[in-house]
Amino acid sequence: xxxxxxxxxxxxxxxxxxxxxxxxxxxxxxxxxxxxxxxxxxxxxxxxxxxxxxxxxxxxxxxxxxxxxxxxxxxxxxxxxxxxxxxxxxxxxxxxxxxxxxxxxxxxxxxxxxxxxxxxxxxxxxxxxxxxxxxxxxxxxxxxxxxxxxxxxxxxxxxx
Length: 160
Ligand code: HEM
Prior knowledge:
Globin-like; about 160 residues; about 65% helix; binds protoporphyrin IX containing FE
């Protein structure tokens, strides 16, 4: 091959290789898939109907537990007081899990002030809630998320 012909062939080869390599670096204009937002815990629990059912069973479990039933003796024996307590508990759980509700009851410190609630009583109440969640087959992930929301309230509720 003559030297000039060789140069032309070599030149063409390198240009075509460049084209190949440039093509590889072309921008991909396909839009990235939009991540689906995780629904709120309120929605995953099944909304207000499901939360109301879990709360009613939770209250029944509390009243059946000798460790804490006495704490709710006065509440349980006054229908108006009981209805208000139930309503506020439902509102609180719906609001705290991201539902379209506003909790209008007392803050957790004031609501439990003067009751001298112990850690053991707090634990018994949480067990009554977990039992209700299990009775309604709420998955472990949602149970843990709910307990993660309620757990920090312990410092406001216990010991005064
Ligand atoms: C995470 C745990 C708890 C939550 C989320 C919670 C939530 C509430 C709420 C929303 C109220 C109503 C407040 C109001 O009327 O403004 C309330 C009241 C009350 N709570 Fe709790 N509570 C918890 C733990 C406990 C424990 C451990 C006890 C005792 C063992 C207890 C005993 C009571 C009693 C006796 C009332 C008053 C009910 C009434 O008005 O007659 N709570 N609580």
